[in-house]
């Protein structure tokens, strides 16, 4: 590809003041630079979106944190998580079970008893979630202060 640099209006200025972002600079950079990987994992699918989707709902991290303490019956989990409905706890545990993060044991009693415990993979994910929670706790005041400063300067996000 031949580019006539003398026809570009930024070239004279670029020689005097330094490099400017221009079409020709960009094209030349793209020709000599290594390709930039697509996304946080490069070209492969590292599963980050799936993991963030799982951790991003309201209850998953709290269920993981509770199960990190040990095996829990369904009712124990529900009592440990104020505000969670029976339906939402059922959905959350079912999703974690499906993903291989917990084991579910049902006992043939009346009423039926169900226990949940983390798998090895679930323990590993719960540890990451724990560190995220610890980071959040340690930095929440700084984040709140930064938000307040930004909102005062910019009038909020809307």
Summarize the structure in words.
By secondary structure, this protein is mainly alpha-helical. Helices cover 56% and strands 9% of the residues. Strand 2 (102-107) and strand 3 (113-118) form a beta hairpin. It is globular, with a radius of gyration of 26 Å. The model is unreliable at 8-16 (pLDDT under 50).
* Total strands: 3
- How would you sum up the global shape? globular
Please give the radius of gyration in angstroms.
Answer: 26 Å
Report low-confidence residues grouped into runs of 5 or more: 8-16
Strand line-up across the major sheet? 1-3-2
How much of the residues is beta strand, in percent?
Answer: 5-15%
Helicity level: 55-70%
- Please trace the helix and strand order, writing H or E for each element: HHHHEHHEEH
Reported for the largest beta sheet, the result is:
3 strands, antiparallel
Mean pLDDT, to the nearest integer, reads 82
Structural class: mainly alpha
Total helical segments = 7
- The end-to-end distance, rounded to whole angstroms, is 45 Å
List keywords for this structure.
single chain, 158 residues, mainly alpha, 3-stranded antiparallel sheet, 7 helices, 3 strands, globular
């Amino acid at each position: 590809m031949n580019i006539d640099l003398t026809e570009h209006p930024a070239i004279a200025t670029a020689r005097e003041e330094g490099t400017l972002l221009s079409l020709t600079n960009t094209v030349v950079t793209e020709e000599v630079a290594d390709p930039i990987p697509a996304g946080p994992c490069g070209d492969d699918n590292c599963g980050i979106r799936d993991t963030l989707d799982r951790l991003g709902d309201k209850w998953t991290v709290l269920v993981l944190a509770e199960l990190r303490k040990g095996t829990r019956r369904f009712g124990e989990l529900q009592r440990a998580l104020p505000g969670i409905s029976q339906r939402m706890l059922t959905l959350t545990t079912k999703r974690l079970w499906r993903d291989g993060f917990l084991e579910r044991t049902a006992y043939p009693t009346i009423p039926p008893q169900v226990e949940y415990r983390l798998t090895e993979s679930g323990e590993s994910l719960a540890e990451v979630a724990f560190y995220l929670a610890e980071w959040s706790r340690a930095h929440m005041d700084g984040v709140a202060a930064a938000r307040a400063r930004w909102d005062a300067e910019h009038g909020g996000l809307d």
